[in-house]
Design a protein that fits this description.
Blueprint lengths: L3 E2 L1 E3 L2 E3 L4 E5 L6 E6 L3 H18 L4 H17 L1 H12 L3 H22 L6 E3 L9 E9 L3 E4 L7 H13 L3 E4 L6 H11 L8 E3 L9 H4 L5 E5 L2 H10 L4 E5 L5 E4 L5 H13 L11 E5 L3 H13 L19 H16 L3 E4 L11 E4 L6 H4 L6 E7 L2 H9 L3 E2 L1 E5 L3 H10 L4 E4 L15 E2 L2 E2 L4 H7 L1 E9 L1
Length: 473
C-alpha cells in the first residue's frame, strides 16, 4: 500500500485537498502521496509558532535537553525505515541514507549537550571609577520563531541542523522541506510530536515556493535559515527585512595536491568525495589541481578508481552513484560535459547517461570558463588539472565565485598554513576531501557560498540574543 503523509501544521496532522504524488528518481515508481499546504496553513503555522514562543522560551535547560535526547532515541529506533524512505524520495544510495540518519541522531545528541551550555559570563565593570561597585552579567535568550527551508539532497540532516538547535535554544520553528523530499522531515515530526516539545512549536509544511513566501517576508519570524541555491538564497536575503538570515548555499569545491601529497591516501578519499550521492553535495569534489610532479601518477590512479565506481539502483548496497534528483538535471550535466568536450576538454572516463543516472565522469584540459569548471555541477563530474607550483594551485582554487570548503593534500607544514591563510574559504581541510564534515563543526562559506555558519553551537548562537544585566551595590 502506498503511504499518504499529512502535513504537520501547528502541532496537528492535516490532510489537505492538494495531494502531491511523489515518484522515485531512480525508476519513477509512485512511493508516497503528501498533502501540500497553502497560504492558510502557512499562516496557521506562523501564528501558532508566535503563541508557542511563550512556552518554548520558558522550558528549562534540562527539559530541552531531554526532548533532544528523546528525538535522538526515536530516530535511532526508526533508522532503517527512515533510511529506506530517503532512498525512495531522493535516490540516495542506501549506505549514505543510513549514514544520514546516524548523523541526524548525533545532531540531536549534540543539541542535548549544548542546551545545557547556553551560558554567559561575568564582566567586571570597574575599569573606570564610574564603574565602581558594579558587575555585569551576560546571558543568551531565545529570539523567537525560526523559519527553516531545507533542500532535497540531505532531506533529513539539513532540516535537523535547523530544528535541533531551535529546540535546544527554546525557539519555535516552521520548516519547509523540499517538494520532492518531504517524507524524511515528516517522519521526524512524528517523533518530535511524541515528546514534550510544545505542539505549536513545530510545523512541517510541504508547499510550493509561492505558498512559502511568508517564511521569507513575515516579520514575526526572527531568523530565516535557508539551504539551497545561491540564486534563490541571495534574493531571499534581500527580501527578508529585519530578521536575521543564515544562508548555506552552493560551491564547486577544489582540491590541491602538492608534490609531497600521499596519493594512496588521497585517491579513495577524493573518489568518495567526488562521486558519492552522485555529487549532489555543495562540498562535493569538483576541481582537482595536482602539482606537475604528481599529476600523471595521480591522474592514472584516480581515473582507474573512477572507472570502478558502481552506478545504478540506490537500493544496491554496492552502488555509490545513484540517480540525480530528476532526469532534467542528468540531462543538464550531460550537456555541460559535451560543451566542455566541444571546447577541447578530454573526457578521461564516463559513459552514456541512463535515465537519471550519470556515471562517474572525469575530465581534464577544461577551459576555466566552462560551466563544468566555474559553475556548480551538482553531479558526478570531476576535473583534474596540472599546476606548475603550489602558488599556482592556490590561485586556481581561489579562482571561483564560491568559497565553501577546499582540500589540500600535503606533508609540508608551511603549505598547510599558507593554504589556511590564503584560501578564501569557510574551511580548509588538510589531507582529506573538502566534502568532510562533522556535525559540530562551524560550517558555511564566503563569497557566493553563503552567509553565517551552521553546526549546532553556531546555529544556537544565531538563534539566541545576548543580554546584559548590570548590578550596582
Amino acid at each position: 500500500m502506498i503511504p499518504s503523509f499529512p502535513a504537520y501544521v501547528a502541532g496537528a496532522w492535516r490532510t489537505t485537498d492538494e495531494p502531491n504524488r511523489l515518484h522515485a528518481p531512480y525508476d519513477g515508481a509512485h512511493f508516497a502521496t503528501v498533502s501540500m499546504c497553502g497560504a492558510r496553513e502557512v499562516e496557521e503555522a506562523i501564528a501558532a509558532a508566535q503563541r508557542a514562543f511563550a512556552e518554548t522560551r520558558a522550558l528549562p535547560a534540562w527539559q530541552r535537553s531531554a526532548i533532544c535526547r528523546a528525538v535522538a532515541h526515536g530516530l535511532s529506533a526508526r533508522r532503517e525505515e527512515v533510511a529506506q524512505g530517503m532512498v525512495d524520495e531522493s535516490g540516495k544510495p542506501i549506505g549514505d541514507a543510513r549514514a544520514e540518519v546516524d548523523r541526524a541522531v548525533h545532531c540531536f545528541e549534540l543539541a542535548a549537550e549544548e542546551a545545557g551550555r547556553i551560558g554567559g559570563e561575568v564582566i567586571p565593570l570597574d575599569l573606570r571609577p564610574a564603574g565602581d561597585g558594579r558587575t555585569g552579567i551576560t546571558r543568551r535568550f531565545p529570539i523567537g520563531p525560526i523559519a527553516a527551508i531545507a533542500p532535497f539532497n540531505f532531506p533529513l540532516n539539513l532540516a535537523v541542523h535547523k530544528i535541533a538547535p531551535a529546540i535546544a535554544s527554546g525557539n519555535p520553528v516552521v520548516v519547509k522541506p523540499a517538494t520532492q523530499t518531504p517524507t524524511s522531515c515528516l517522519r521526524l515530526a512524528e517523533i518530535i510530536d511524541g515528546t514534550a516539545w510544545p505542539k505549536g512549536g513545530l510545523s512541517v509544511l510541504p508547499c510550493t515556493r509561492d505558498a512559502a513566501d511568508a517564511l521569507t517576508t513575515d516579520e514575526r519570524f526572527k531568523l530565516l535559515s535557508f539551504t539551497g541555491s545561491p540564486q534563490v538564497g541571495w534574493r531571499m536575503k534581500e527580501r527578508a527585512g529585519k530578521k536575521r538570515v543564515v544562508l548555506e548555499l552552493g560551491g564547486n569545491a577544489a582540491v590541491l595536491l602538492d608534490e609531497t601529497a600521499d596519493l594512496a591516501r588521497a585517491v579513495p578519499k577524493l573518489i568518495y568525495g567526488a562521486f558519492s550521492y552522485s555529487g549532489q553535495k555543495c562540498i562535493s569534489v569538483q576541481r582537482i589541481y595536482a602539482h606537475q610532479r604528481v599529476f600523471a601518477e595521480f591522474c592514472e590512479r584516480f581515473v582507474a578508481a573512477a572507472r570502478e565506481v558502481r552506478a545504478g539502483d540506490p537500493r544496491d548496497e554496492g552502488v555509490l552513484v545513484g540517480p540525480l534528483i530528476d532526469e532534467a538535471n542528468a540531462k543538464r550535466i550531460e550537456r555541460w560535459v559535451e560543451e566542455a568536450a566541444a571546447r577541447g576538454a578530454k573526457v578521461l572516463c564516463g559513459g552514456p547517461r541512463r535515465g537519471a543516472v550519470v556515471p562517474a565522469t572525469v575530465l581534464t584540459d577544461v577551459p576555466r570558463d566552462a560551466r563544468v569548471s566555474c559553475d556548480e555541477v551538482f553531479g558526478p563530474v570531476c576535473l583534474i588539472e596540472r599546476v606548475a607550483s603550489f602558488e599556482e594551485g592556490l590561485e586556481r582554487v581561489n579562482d571561483s565565485i564560491y568559497g565553501l570548503q577546499a582540500g589540500v593534500f600535503t606533508a609540508d607544514l608551511g603549505h598547510t598554513f599558507d593554504a589556511f591563510e590564503r584560501l578564501e574559504m569557510g574551511a580548509v581541510i588538510i589531507n582529506d576531501a573538502p566534502s568532510f564534515r562533522i556535525d559540530h563543526m562551524p560550517y558555511g562559506g564566503v563569497k557566493d557560498s553563503g552567509f553565517g555558519r551552521e553546526g549546532i553551537r553556531s546555529a544556537i548562537h544565531d538563534m539566541t540574543e545576548e543580554r546584559l544585566l548590570v548590578i550596582a551595590r
